[in-house]
Fold this protein.
Amino acid sequence: MAARAERARAQVRRIGARVLAGVGVLWGAATLSFLALHATAGDAALATVAGDGANPTQAVLERVRQDYGLDLPLHRQYLNYLGNLLTGDLGESYQQRISVTRAIGEQLGPTVALALSAALLALVLAVTVAVLTAGRRRWVRSTASGVEVVIASFPTFVLGLLLLIVFSFRTGWFPVSGNDGFSALVLPAVTLALPIAAVLGQVLRAELEDVLEQPFILTARTRGMRDTAVRVRHALRHALIQIVTMSGYMIGTLLGGAVITETLFVRRGVGQLMLTAVTTKDIPLVLGVVLFAAAVYVVVNLVVDIVYGLVDPRVVTA
């Protein structure tokens, strides 16, 4: 009973430390992004009103600077920004004239669909290949590992271009761009999923081969259990814990890859929104998307830490 209470207190302390670290990550992301955007060349007021060939007067630019607080000293702008963040206000987009929260919300659906499809596909591919090749003959493992290394080393835009050339331009099986229907989602999801599946497959195969050497696996085999059943019902269950610890890597790769994939396939989404905001120097929108991505990363890692602590209590008391 006392040991259980001690483990519970250790878990609470561990979660509290992770939450504080997450707050630090969010503050760091907000601060570095704010400083980087203000250090780059370009006039945000001019970028705000200079679209469609407009030639704003100096008076108009001054009015824009006053309206958005761009005429204040940098430290005042930074403190105002942090103060607004504490109230949940991400500001208003210079270009779209709507709140940053609404701008992100309107683009969130396509990005979530793309990310979930890619994550599911990556997991299915990684688990299937790892289960089929772990512990097999050397040439089988070497071939699978070589293919995974090649795929993982491909830049995302190169992989996407190859898929477009083969499956859109030559065969016409899938549309080149757009968000219309399931067929438009296939190539972007495959582009995003393949590098992740390659990395996960290597990690999972190594873990499976370690598990397959354990005594309880030999016991299962001596009971007459078939090889496939041993791998799926016994070895895979233990090896998947390693995949849980890599969820942070997977989320980071999905978020970073979404910008490139959505741009390459001309899809609506948060990645495309981010790219447009950067090119038009829409500072509130860029900061909002960066904070959103950092928040997703922090929350996912926190959930993974909690789940990992429940699955393996040794990490809590270590």
Remarks:
- The two ends are 19 Å apart (CA to CA).
- The chain has 14 helices and no strands.
- The first helix runs from residue 2 to 39.
